[in-house]
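Researcher: Quick one. two chains, 611 residues in total.
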Amino acid sequence: MWCRMIEPTPEEPLPRPRPRTAVTLAGLAVLLVAAGMAAVSLGPVPVAPGDVATILAAHLGLPGDGVTAQDVLVVEQLRLPRVLVAALAGAALGVAGAVMQALFGNPLAEPGVTGVSSGAAVGAVLAITSGAAGGLVLPAAAFAGALVTVAVVYAIGAFGRERGMATVLLAGVALNALLGAVVSVLVANAPDEESLRGVVFWLQGDLDARTWEHVRLIAGPVLAGVAVTPAFARDLNVMLLGDDAARTGGVDVTRTRHLLLILASLLAGAAVSVSGVIGFVGLVAPHIVRLVAGPDHRLLLPASALLGAAFLVLADTAARMSPVPVALQTGVVTAFAGAPVFLLLVLWSARSAR
Amino acid sequence: MIAVDGLHVELDGNAVLHDVELAVPPGRIVGLVGPNGAGKSTLLRTIAGLHRPSRGRVLLAGRPVHARKPQELARDVAYLPQDIALPFPFTAYQVTLMGRHPHLGRFARESAADHRTAQRAMAATGTAHLAGRSVATLSGGERQLVLLAKALAQDAPVLLADEPVSALDLRHQLDVLRLLRGCAGAGRTVLVVLHDLNLAARYCTELALLSGGRVIACGPPATVLAPDHLATAYGVGAVVRPDDVTGSLTVTALENP
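Model:
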């Protein structure tokens, strides 16, 4: 037997890593504003970004000279509400995805994959077909549908007693198929199919023809959900250590989990009620943030909101700007961007699990 | 002061602990020893508030642990699990700093003092050089040391450790047990589940020998590690004698004839 002897070198202590919270959030906010400006100025009738700024600034009492009435109409009545709906829905989906990944201990969980968005769609379609969808009834029904689905996914995950990927994802596959079928039946048998915008809208979400009414409908629940979840950011960090370590580390695991599942359902339900099922935003946004700035939820939650918003605004702009014979729905664009990310994560998880 | 009072615990309908009585004053390091399935980890986890007793109770400074809120309990009791599986790349420093969670309000950020506590805990466990590493990429032994650092950062008067040396090499086993004994020496109450009777005899002030969910002997190592107790618990004969070097007791199990 022979071996080469090497003297161990003394190890240098590493400096404490400091995530740059403020810088990251400021950068993402700038990205969101830039994406929003680009989205408002691009379209069949281009409006120069400077004119967009002038039109918006007029609401702050600044002189709004030098812009045409047509531009004002296009910006204020057509594009701005659509961009705001995209930003709100994207923020909601980004935060809901980050929360669900932490609660299920599963990097692949998000409202679309787990079937929670489909549950919200069933709730929304039920509200419309029953003729009850006035005011906040629509997002409330979507919230209820999301909540029931979350409870089912959670119960299945708890029954499987593992934090691994398979159970929750397989439950999501089954629930998506089942709830998609329910949506199809409800839409096909609806007395007034026109008001439902067709089954495709609900199963492959779109932001076409979104108005200020839709902005008003979801602004409250989305902003409230996005504002409240960071209060539980440290609890989410500790909960990732596992239930035992979290409970003995000072977290009321059951109560916190229930509360956060309700918040995630509220956010997913709000998004789905005005956009249909748009997948992968809740997957892409948190994972890019984790790659860039680490997994601490104190940064991850607000950053996922900003990045999810920017991502959906950009995806929707791409859908709108697709060359004429091609018609793309917003949900198609997010799927084109998100599905490869999902596959990479599956491969990566499968490798690291070995 | 931990007082375990007439404790019965059932898991999934099976009785795991029967009528356990135990009282541990501060400043002691008590080893929970016994064969596999004897109920050592269940006893530790029940004291940590993770299992609800079917009868009896666990009192901490006179108050039952199961009636207390997790955050309040975590300021008094730190629990060190055998291992964790982290699905996201938190660094060893971030995990250690999580030990400060029960001391912080909902909207508070860690103060400079919290960071100092975490850094001291990493230095004490010899994990400072791992601070920037993702916990998921550490070896099992390194991760165990980081979890100990987190438990120390929690700065609780009671420290419960479930097989803290099971994944550690020779030198780190001694380092960790010396550290735990030091915690007891500084006035904390330390309960530690150990499989190695020699290490238990060398580092613990008292032992509790469990078998079949009952405490069959407790007290100083010299009284607990009697050959007839070991025969009852483990079903093997054993020779117990002082070690030539350390002077503490060593147990040599005998092959059954």
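Residues 221 and 303 of chain A are 18 Å apart (CA to CA).
Researcher: Thanks, that's what I needed.
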